[in-house]
Design goal:
Elements (H helix, E strand, L loop, with lengths): L9 H10 L4 H19 L2 E4 L2 H16 L11 E5 L28 H8 L3 E6 L33 H8 L5 E5 L6 H7 L2 E4 L20 E5 L2 H11 L27 E5 L10 H16 L3 E5 L4 H19 L18 H12 L2 H14 L5 H24 L2 E5 L15 H6 L5 H5 L4 E8 L5 E7 L5 H15 L12
Parallel strand pairs: 2-3, 2-4, 7-8, 7-9
Antiparallel strand pairs: 1-3, 4-6, 5-6, 5-10, 9-11, 10-11
Helix pairs in contact: 2-3, 7-15, 9-11, 9-12
Bound molecules: glutamine (GLN).
Glutamine (GLN) binds next to loops.
Length: 493
């Protein structure tokens, strides 16, 4: 007997599709059934393929199987793409969750989309997000918030909240998101799925609408680390169209990990009850004791620069954002609105009506920290602190294999709970921005349910370019914990 579709690993499912034992069409029908049932209450998609077109695409995979044609590594797998990743399609737009790109159809595929399609993945839709990836709850989307399947009154995290939900509610089996300061790991943690931000440069940013270019990285969400590993192996690789793309040999495939050989660093600042909820700390500690039982070494260390992470990140991210978003002026990009007959009024009206409050706040603060007279005091200084943090982390990695700790200081919070105070929202990123500032790979894996039944993830941060090792270790840990198999009660379809 064949196990239900959603219980198979991606690799097994693709193998069964290629053997003709499971049809790609039945997989597509299963995900569309979940979409039809739950998209209205969860608000996952910004645009979605018409069902008949998605089914026809799946049938074309089944026809190739029948004809004995060779197929790619993601044959027949429904995938969602965050709405800041370009796709050339008549139905699928690239709005970045913003009004300014309300009707934007990208004129080309992002490299990651090309790579997915080449491996016969079926890209079915674009997922909702905080406007221009700025936020931690998906509430900054100009098109209404996405809701958390574990509790509809709560946020799914952000900015790739809907990408995480598309996996949690099985509306797809692989989802691409972007992570500038935690936007893959934090929603993965809040929705009980697995999410990886790769090493900076491992995945091409060509076709990703830029937020903070020195921090942005595309990565994936799936129901397990094993599935994420297959997704990442498909989308990674050097790309001459991205000048920051890394020329490294990515090790394909997962390796067997002996947990007793590993050394983890647990930063004391990461388990500080003044910052994180007791349940979040308990989740990390429970995993730590499981790891100890398996023979791993865990050492607590102070990481004094932790207090500077959030300010450093936000100064750099705002500065880069203010520069990157200059292109949305109603002429080069963005819908044009005119009120008066000067060029300046065109810029002003287009940008004032096109951008939401949070984006405007960041453009203004970013412009300020870059301005003459303040550059050295803010942007220049933040760059120096980033270097100090990078050095500190590099030296930790001469002693340790991984840094372990929480992803977010709290489980999913209520809609509206933090919208009034942007600083409270920014503090949600305290544990996630380290990996972006240091360009290291980091993964969030589900490790606990809170007393009120909300998922909590634990984060592992690895050495640069050791993404495959990080994933292999996460796979070994998921064999111990099994929390990745726990599903949101009403969304088990
Ligand atoms: N929450 C962070 C921010 O608002 C991170 C967002 C992201 O990773 N795109 O900048």
């Amino acid at each position: 007997m064949i196990a239900p579709i959603f219980e198979l690993s991606l690799e097994q499912l693709v193998a069964d599709i290629k053997k003709g034992q499971i049809s790609a069409k039945s997989v597509m029908n299963a995900v569309y059934q979940n979409i039809e049932k739950h998209n209205a209450s969860l608000n996952v998609f910004r645009s979605l393929l018409d069902k008949s077109r998605a089914l026809a695409w799946a049938e074309s995979i089944d026809a190739k199987v029948k004809n004995g044609e060779s197929l790619g590594r993601l044959a027949g797998i429904p995938v969602t793409i965050k709405d800041n990743i370009c796709i050339l399609d008549t139905e699928l737009k690239t709005t970045c969750g913003s009004k300014i790109l309300e009707n934007f159809h990208a004129p080309y595929h992002a490299t990651v989309v090309e790579k997915l399609i080449k491996e016969d993945a079926l890209v079915i839709g674009k997922t909702n997000m905080d406007e221009f990836a700025m936020g931690s709850s998906t509430e900054n989307s100009a098109y209404a918030a996405t809701r958390n399947p574990w509790d509809l009154e709560r946020v799914p995290g952000g900015s790739s909240g809907a990408a995480a939900v598309s996996i949690a509610a099985r509306m797809a089996l692989l989802a691409l998101g972007s992570d500038t300061g935690g936007s893959i790991r934090q929603p993965a943690s809040m929705c009980g799925v697995t999410g990886i931000k790769p090493t900076y440069g491992v995945v091409s940013r060509y076709g990703l609408v830029a937020y903070g270019s020195s921090l942005d990285q595309i990565g994936c969400f799936a129901k397990s680390a094993e599935d994420c590993a297959l997704g990442l192996s498909v989308i990674q690789g050097y790309d001459e169209r991205d000048s920051t793309s890394a020329q490294v040999n990515y090790e394909e495939g997962l390796s067997e990990i002996d947990l007793s050989q590993l050394k983890f660093c647990l930063p004391l600042e990461y388990i500080d009850e003044k910052v994180a909820d007791a349940e979040v700390i308990a989740s990390v500690k429970e995993l730590v004791s499981l790891l100890k039982k398996s023979g791993a070494t865990i050492e607590e260390r102070s990481l004094p620069l932790t207090q500077h992470l959030v300010p450093t990140y936000y100064i750099l991210a705002f500065a880069e954002a203010s520069s990157n978003l200059g292109r949305f002026d109603g002429i080069r990009y963005g819908s044009r609105k005119q009120n008066g007959d000067t060029l300046e009024s065109l810029y002003k009206t287009s940008r004032s009506s096109g951008f939401g409050t949070e984006v405007k706040r960041r453009i203004m603060l970013g412009t300020f920290v870059l301005s003459a007279g303040y550059y050295d005091q803010y942007y220049g200084k933040a760059g120096k602190v980033r270097k100090m943090i990078e050095n500190e982390v590099e030296s930790l990695f001469t002693e340790f294999d991984f840094i372990i700790g929480p992803v977010s200081p709290f489980p999913a919070f209520k809609l509206g709970e933090k919208t009034e105070d942007p600083l409270l929202m920014y503090l949600a990123d305290i544990y996630s921005v380290l990996a972006n500032l240091t360009r290291t790979p980091a993964i969030s894996i589900p490790t606990k349910l809170s007393a009120s039944g909300l998922p909590i993830g634990t984060q592992l941060i690895g050495r640069k370019f050791q993404d495959a090792y990080l994933l292999s270790t996460a796979v070994a840990i998921q064999k111990l914990t099994d929390y990745h198999k726990v599903r949101a009660p009403q969304f088990k379809g």
